[in-house]
Amino acid sequence: MLKLLHRLRARYQYRHEEAGGFKNLILHTAFALSLTSGLSYFLGLVRDKSFAYTFGASAELDVYNAAFVIPDLFLAVLVTSALSAAFVPIFSNFDEQQKAKAIRYTNQVLSYGLLFLAIVCAVFALILPNIVDFLVPGFNHEQQAQYISITRLMLISPFLFTISNTFGNALISIKEFLWYGLSPVMYNLGIVMGVILFVPSMGLMGLVLGTVLGAFLHLLIRIPSMIRYGYRPRVELEITPEIRETVLLMLPKIAQIGMWQLLLWWFVRLASQLEEGSVTIYSFARNFQSVPVSLVGIAIALAAFARLSHVASNRDYKEFVKTVKEKTRIILLYTTPAALAMGILSYPMVNILLGGGKFDATAVSATASLLLVYCLSIPLESLMHLLSRAHYAMKNTLRPSAIHVFTIAMTMLSSSLLLGPIGLFAIPAGFTVGLFLQIILLKLSLAHLLRRHRSA
């Protein structure tokens, strides 16, 4: 009886929080994530337009895009794996019981994350010249020299993103969605400022400076909300039960996120072996494809994650299944027409948004054609985010991680085999095949996991 009353009370509290007026809609619902994602992607289009107009599909922009991959890999493996797999459920549990423990846990994650990141980045910066041939085999000596310099500077960004993303996951837990969502807006704004203010006098290095500025702004916008919550920075390196739980939950996630970042590097590596500008064309097409995924798929999945975590902690599996099914329908309802529309309008859209300056008709046609194939993956990738987070809400990271690792290996294999016959199209084709397989395996895994929990 007490358990039933607890579940009813939790459900009432959640629905009471979700209800409300315009302020609640803007600050605390999935609408805030969609709104800020839309603004972010508008600035992202401005960013890409400025890139295309200033640099075109050039070797310089190829180097810049390639330089992101390894810093993002370190950030994802050492920090994001803990945040996405363990932070929200553990922080949410502390937030409901004792806020001081939630703040302490935040400082613990930051302390360990920044320490390990500093060690790995320092070692990598030293050995980079010795492995550059393996990382970007298609680049010539001048491009490789630029790649080394830019990548070393880009290693500043993971430290800023570590703090910002930790704060962001805390904001997700307490449903401060507006301030969470504004960070990518500020990031793109910083990059655009770099193109306008720094590139004319500093060239490609000005673009790198703008990127680091964007990472700082990404963090800055989240700090006031964390201060209002009561957060104060402090070094916490004690090994507590929650840190042990975080490590156990993140170990499978390290493999999953690490494989994802390896896949992105693999795509860059494949593109670097083709004609000049291929890395840039791939990056632009991927940016377009990710717009509906972020506006709908990721926004809904993030908002649902907090809900699913609370429901799972109360063992209300009927409501859990209902929420997953409802969000699945919504995701498919919006992303499928979006994918069709983007595919039909790919050429005029790319021509209008990127064409001009140094981005000529050949580059426009190549980007639009690649985007057309990429559109097939939009509903699949959107749904993947929801099904993965449904597993995380039940504190199970092993299953989705194993599935992710397997399907990414299949993606890398298929894209490699297709590179010779279809060239750059091998990237989106292999990506779609891997996602389709991943969705099937995630659905089967979640159904089995729910049956096991209900019978326990």
Mean pLDDT: 84
- Report the β-strand fraction as a percent range: under 5%
Order of helices and strands: HHHHHHHHHHHHHHHHHHH
Give a quick account of the main beta sheet: strands, pairing sense, barrel closure: none
What is the number of domains?
A: 1
Gyration radius, in Å: 22 Å
Count of helical segments? Answer: 19
Catalogue the unreliable spans. Answer: 1-19
Please give the share of residues in helix: over 70%
Q: Specify the overall morphology.
A: globular
How many strands in all? 0
Secondary-structure-based class equals: mainly alpha
Q: Cα distance, first to last residue?
A: 18 Å
Give the topology.
Elements: H1 2-18, H2 22-28, H3 30-55, H4 59-67, H5 69-97, H6 99-135, H7 141-154, H8 157-173, H9 177-202, H10 204-220, H11 223-229, H12 241-272, H13 278-313, H14 317-344, H15 346-354, H16 361-374, H17 378-393, H18 398-422, H19 426-455
Helix pairs in contact: 2-3, 3-9, 3-13, 4-7, 4-13, 5-6, 5-8, 5-12, 5-13, 6-7, 6-8, 6-12, 8-9, 8-10, 9-10, 12-18, 13-14, 13-16, 13-17, 14-17, 15-16, 16-19, 17-19, 18-19
